[in-house]
Request: fold
Amino acid sequence: MSDPSRVSRQEQLRLEILWAMRASRTPQYSGWLSVKGLRAALNQGGGDYTLTEVCEACDYLASAGYIEDESVRGVHFDASQPSYKIAAQGLLLLDHKIPPDPGIEDSRK
Reply:
């Protein structure tokens, strides 16, 4: 189990993003979240993240295959703010069905 005092802010943010994206996968929502909308949701839940931090965390998650960028599907909601949705790998990570990622908070580390 990980030591909470050793979890970096970015590791925690990446995990929170994955959980937020998972929660957005409901029949009434498409699952796509803009970076600005994601930041607002995270900060409403008690976070204090900058837009830059959220963008950097999304870049990490997308490059690792845990979330999809809107450009992957040819969907473009607003060119001024990228949108993302959770990918199958992200769901598997949250469900502990694949090994932990060292850059994301995980109780198995």
Observations:
- The longest strand covers residues 83-86.
- Strands lie at 33-34, 67-69, 83-86.
- The chain has a mean pLDDT of 86.
- Helices lie at 9-23, 35-44, 51-63, 88-94.
